[in-house]
UniProtKB/TrEMBL annotation:
Protein's name in the database: Glucose-fructose oxidoreductase
Domain called GFO/IDH/MocA-like oxidoreductase: residue spans: 177-291
InterPro entries per the UniProt record, alphabetical: Gfo/Idh/MocA-like_OxRdtase_N, Gfo/Idh/MocA_Oxidoreductases, GFO_IDH_MocA-like_dom, Glc-Fru_OxRdtase_bac, NAD(P)-bd_dom_sf
Stored SUPFAM superfamilies: Glyceraldehyde-3-phosphate dehydrogenase-like, C-terminal domain, NAD(P)-binding Rossmann-fold domains
Pfam families associated with the record: GFO_IDH_MocA (PF01408), GFO_IDH_MocA_C3 (PF22725)
Record domain Gfo/Idh/MocA-like oxidoreductase N-terminal: where: 45-168
Organism for this UniProt entry: Flavobacterium limi
Gene symbol of the encoding locus: gfo
Domain of life: Bacteria
Length: 382
């Protein structure tokens, strides 16, 4: 019997609706007929996680079962974490480093790539040290705290002939791939207006405030974070606007919001709003805050609209278009990201532009312009 995948079902029956609608309305017997997955048993990329905080734990859990990437090493400044991780993930002593002896990783042929998951201002140092050790490197968002740092990181990776990727997990997430398609393929015509808002201060699953707002958190220390919620989650709002439109902003204006908690927000903003203008004339409004829970992206196009809420946190995402629901089954985002990056490296190919250091640099340029606009009250031309 002929195997029917979602794609062939659509081609065969010529359904003229978006994939998003199909994703929710396709009969369940067809889902079972997805093309058979052929397991990969070849060489994996051996990864060392650098920094073992909250997000590194999420990455480590998510990548269990990855076909293309293996958690082979760790880099930590906390000896007790080294013991815990060694046991939990079966990591050999020879693949465990601290921040001081990290450069010795150059001699370790068992590690192919380092994933830097440290406070923002530490990304540059560890990316450059990884590059000099001949390791491919992924760095978390935001890439660094300013343009100069990003340029130095890109140069170090180029000079040492290693590849630099950004930890942009949403670039592999089906709901986000779909809104990118809806926007860039002009499924509802030209997108004219985007609103993207993000921050989460209260964890509705754990039923407690999110730790990022604790006074001791490095995110409130400008030297370590480079800025407040704009650096942390606002970057996703910028990203989503850029990939829905497939354009780069030409100017920004911005305004800092009220500071309600002067003790915590003495160095970084508590909230910020910004407006970006794109070459097509499209406008994108963004807002991010540590003071309230928002997680929403909305795009208005000539003949319709699409939106996600929640749409930027870890999911599952809920969405709709003017034609119907927009929802895909949740995936292990970090595993998918690492698998896709690893596949490219294993094939000795170049990483796609949208997740490289150049992409991270573009976001930092926009973030810097937004801060400048908020500080000066002037429109900043990019
Ligand atoms: P975290 O505070 O939980 O972890 C930071 C780690 O850095 C800890 O292991 C800590 O011990 C170590 N560290 C080393 N030197 C430090 C110093 N001087 N001060 C504070 N910590 C120090 O932070 P996190 O939430 O894991 O964030 C780490 C990075 O990951 C950040 O760049 C953040 O933006 C990024 N992140 C990305 C996502 C995503 O979805 N892609 C989600 C969360 C965090």
């Amino acid at each position: 019997m002929e195997k029917i995948s979602r794609r062939s079902f659509v081609n065969k029956f010529g359904i003229g609706v978006s994939a998003s609608v199909i994703a929710t309305s396709i009969p369940s017997f067809l889902s079972a007929a997805e093309p058979e997955h052929i397991p990969y048993n070849g060489k994996k990329i051996n990864l060392a996680l650098c920094g073992l905080g909250i997000y590194a734990n999420i990455v480590a859990e998510s990548m269990q079962g990855s076909e293309y990437c293996n958690l082979a090493g760790i880099v930590t400044g906390t000896p007790s974490k080294a013991i815990k991780w060694k046991e939990k993930y079966n990591i050999p002593d020879k693949n465990i480093y601290n921040y001081e002896n990290f450069d010795e990783i150059i001699k370790n042929k068992d590690i192919d790539m380092v994933y830097v998951i440290l406070p923002n201002s530490m990304h540059k140092d560890f990316v450059i040290r990884s590059a000099k050790a001949g390791k491919h490197v992924i760095t978390e968002k935001p890439m660094a705290i300013d343009v100069k740092e990003c340029e130095e990181m890109i140069k170090a990776c180029n000079d040492n002939k290693v590849q630099l990727a950004l930890g942009y997990r949403l670039h592999y997430e089906p709901t986000h791939l779909e809104i990118k398609r809806l926007g860039q393929e002009k499924v509802f015509g030209q997108v004219r207006y985007i609103e993207s808002l993000g921050y989460k201060t209260y964890d509705t699953i754990a039923k407690k405030p999110v730790d990022i707002n604790s006074p001791a958190n490095w995110r409130l220390n400008k030297k370590l974070s480079g800025g407040g919620p704009l650096m942390d989650l606002g970057i996703y709002c910028i990203q989503v606007s850029r990939y829905i439109l497939g354009e780069e902003p030409i100017s920004v204006t911005a305004q800092f919001g009220t500071i309600n908690d002067k003790n915590r927000f003495s160095e970084t903003e508590e909230s910020i709003s910004w407006q970006m203008v794109f070459p097509s004339g499209a406008m994108a409004n963004g807002n991010t805050s540590c003071g309230y829970n928002i997680d929403r992206t909305y795009a208005s196009a000539d003949y319709g609209s699409f939106e996600l809420s929640p749409g930027l946190s870890y999911g599952p995402y809920e969405g709709k278009t003017s034609k119907g629901p927009l929802k895909f089954p949740p995936i292990k985002q970090q595993q998918k990201q690492l698998d896709e990056i690893s596949k490219v490296l294993l094939a000795n190919k170049k990483l796609p532009d949208h997740i490289t250091g150049e992409e991270g640099l573009k976001d930092i340029k926009i973030i810097n312009a937004i801060y400048k606009a908020a500080e000066t009250g002037k429109k900043i031309i990019l």
